[in-house]
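Work Package 4 report. The design task specified in the project plan requires that, given a folded chain encoded as structure tokens, an amino acid be chosen for each position. We show below one input record used in the internal validation round.
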């Protein structure tokens, strides 16, 4: 694999993976990421292994991503799921999102849309825009759930509001297949969902006319 291509891909993914100030050891993780982007993969991966074994979720997520794509290690979907799961259980939204995608695609585990939805939803409730867009796509396509354009539009609305770059485009495309009443309902549900801290995202909020 060409060095520059997978540095760029991995660095782009990891821009969303910066640990919070409360996580430790932040400096070791940041130094490892810098080493990885500089091409010193052995140092970075060795450090991530060490930090991951200590329970550092950002390192666990990064290690899972490396195993998923074979970046610096042999590609191993089962190992990727193991590390994603470890980080996801600690509340790491990126790991939850990546784990959802593994189940959606059937990588390292049988394809399971309901398990994918579960993990995307957990991440979405942490305002993870990519996961919110993934939920929109799942409802748009009817994967594991009945096809539901209103729910799909709602999640695209929410993802757009938190800054997901593709959500607005997907929402605009979906709108072409919806009635004005459906679009209004989706917008109303998005407002309620966000104002409730993602606790109330399923009930209709427009009265029949």
């Amino acid at each position: 694999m060409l060095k520059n291509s997978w540095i760029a891909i991995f660095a782009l993914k990891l821009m969303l993976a910066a640990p919070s100030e409360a996580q430790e050891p932040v400096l070791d993780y940041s130094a490892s990421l810098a080493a990885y982007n500089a091409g010193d993969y052995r140092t970075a991966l060795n450090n991530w292994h060490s930090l991951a074994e200590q329970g550092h979720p950002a390192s666990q997520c990064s290690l899972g991503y490396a195993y998923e794509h074979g970046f610096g290690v042999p590609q191993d979907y089962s190992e990727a799921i193991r590390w994603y799961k470890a980080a996801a259980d600690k509340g790491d939204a990126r790991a939850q999102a990546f784990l959802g995608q593994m189940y959606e695609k059937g990588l390292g585990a049988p394809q399971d849309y309901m398990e994918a939805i579960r993990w995307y939803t957990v991440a979405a409730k942490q305002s993870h825009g990519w996961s919110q867009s993934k939920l929109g796509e799942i409802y748009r396509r009817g994967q594991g759930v009945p096809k539901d354009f209103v729910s799909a539009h709602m999640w695209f609305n929410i993802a757009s509001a938190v800054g997901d770059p593709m959500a607005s485009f997907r929402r605009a495309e979906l709108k072409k297949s919806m009635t004005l009443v459906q679009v209004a309902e989706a917008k109303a549900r998005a407002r309620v969902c966000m104002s409730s801290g993602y606790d109330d995202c399923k009930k209709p909020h427009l009265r029949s006319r």
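The radius of gyration is 19 Å. Validation will be extended to a larger panel in the next phase.
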